[in-house]
Amino acid sequence: MRNKSHQTARAPEAKAATGNAQEVAESFEEFMEAFEAFKQANDERLEQVESRIGADTVTVEKMNRISRALDEQKSRMDGFVLKGQRPGLTGSAALTVAGIEHKQAFNAYVRSGNEHGLRQHEQKALSYGSDPDGGFLVPDETAAEIGRRLSLASPIRSIAGVQTVSSAVYKKPFAVSGPQTGWASETQARPETDSPTLAELSFPTMELYAMPAATSSLLEDAAIDIDAWIASEVETAFAEQESTAFVNGDGVNKPRGFLDHTIVDEDTWSWGNLGYVATGADGAFAGSDPSDTLVDTIYALKAGYRQNAKWVMNRKTQAEVRKLKDADGNYLWQPPAGAGQAASLMGFGVVEAEDMPDIATDTTAVAFGDFARGYLIVDRAGVRVLRDPYSAKPYVLFYTTKRVGGGVQDFDAIKLVKFGTS
Fold first, then answer.
1. Is the pLDDT of residue 420 over 90?
2. Which of 121, 160, 317, 381 sits 20 to 30 Å CA-CA off 293?
């Protein structure tokens, strides 16, 4: 009876998983059909341009319409894949006794406002993150689920280096130049080598918050998984704020984005700046051989960084890149090999970050590099929740906070494409 009941309980989950897999497969098939239609429309446009007649307005509009549909289809497909990667928290690994106590106490606090269990748990655990006046720490598996969801939803977090700390500031020494080296014979005196040049990088963590609201009926419903509800409610808010800060943040009460640093021509690059390669055209790719800029950008990056390099750009820029061909007439941009995988540009994955600037005069609309080594995200361990049943009656607000910082840690690992003449 127990096995039969267990199988019956899992049947809806299996059915849902099968349905989601079918949606992903159908969406991927539609995406590939749209890409073939886009290539045909773009080829027609290029033939009209080369014939010196000029691209027909109808053809251009058709191509742009298909391009927009392609982006929408990709977003829809990614949504199905993301949905399939979000199992409920009830399937987590077995908890320790302390973990079970924490989970039960947190559940009582969220549902009814009973703080007694959480206060006892945090006093017993002597948690460095406890701060009852500013909220209580969520259970470890809930914090891990929030972090996992963010890594899926936040484009820069998905490719950057991530470090978890217990303090407010993370300081990291970095060797700008290594020690002097050379060759010597067995009996030759060894010259004293120079000490490496070290730079100390500091990454303060800033408070990021979201405030989901719940009704009394939702909190009283025992069938609602409170942990999963909080994780899903704060996911989008956290991901949007993080994504903006990791790209454009000025470092004031937020992480410092990689585009906030000084940029210099790659030929004059020095530590502390990000190097760029100019397209040679004002607010556009060059009229002839536009792919040369992308090739130069790839090889501006040292070989050790290229192995894990990614392109980062927004949807509009990707639509322009999608039109480019190499000297043999092959499209530089290639669709993903399967659902849930990234598109590629000249053999390197493309990450879509909507906070990247559009192509315009002197904008750095494309970034390329090994972001795992180039950009560091610092998470302070723990996510806190403060229950507020008073400010928005009859709703209950949950002031949810986490501390996060970020900044460039290796200025040689990221290169930019500047849409300008110099």
1. yes
2. 160
